Amino acid sequence: MIDLYYWTTPNGHKISIFLEEAGLPYEVHGVNIGKNEQFKPEFLRIAPNNRIPAIVDHEPADGGAPLSLFESGAILMYLAEKIGRFLPADLRGRQEVSQWLFWQMGGLGPMAGQNHHFGTFAPEKIPYAIERYVKETARLYGVLDRRLADREFVAGDYSIADMAIYPWIVPHTRQQQDLADFPNLQRWFQAIAARPAVQRAYALVERFQPKA
What we know:
The chain is α+β, with helices and mostly antiparallel strands. It has 2 domains: about 1-85 and about 200-210, Glutaredoxin; about 90-195, Glutathione S-transferase Yfyf (Class Pi), Chain A, domain 2. Helices cover about 55% and strands about 10% of the residues. It has a 4-stranded mixed sheet, covered by helices on one side. Helix 1 links the parallel strand 1 (about 1-5) and strand 2 (about 25-30). Helix 1 runs parallel beside helix 3, helix 1 crosses helix 6 (about 160-170) and helix 4 packs antiparallel against helix 5. The model has no long low-confidence stretch (mean pLDDT about 95).
């Protein structure tokens, strides 16, 4: 059994997508970041950086005590290694996936996150900051669009790289991006969105943040 500490953010969705794709049994624990629940001592024992997602694996491969992990990229790699899927075992395939996973972690996620902040949440609208992060998000979309020009998924077969990237493309309207400008990315995005496991993962939103 996996305990998933989750909220309805792109990083939270990454792990719920993986768990649904893998068919692993898991229990979801909501951590409402709007109410600062990420600062509760019991959560900080699992995730000292006070960020979701985090997991506790009650059946780690070494047979030892339950294992807790934070940081979404590390969690994805751990879970992929645990079940032997979604991360190639061969040297070159593994590095392809790893590069694009870290591209998301170090590039797309932070830049799109700043896009969200300055465009939507910042109390003062700063045109320079908004323009900077909208343009950088567009540049990264272009990188991904070119990558997908001759392949179905980001790194060969469907992998944790796709699972990590997709949730950051979902809010493309908020990021002031038009997917029609990125046809290869749009085709990939629609294919991922149609996957039943992805749809089940996103159904958690209604459970934790039901529409009024």
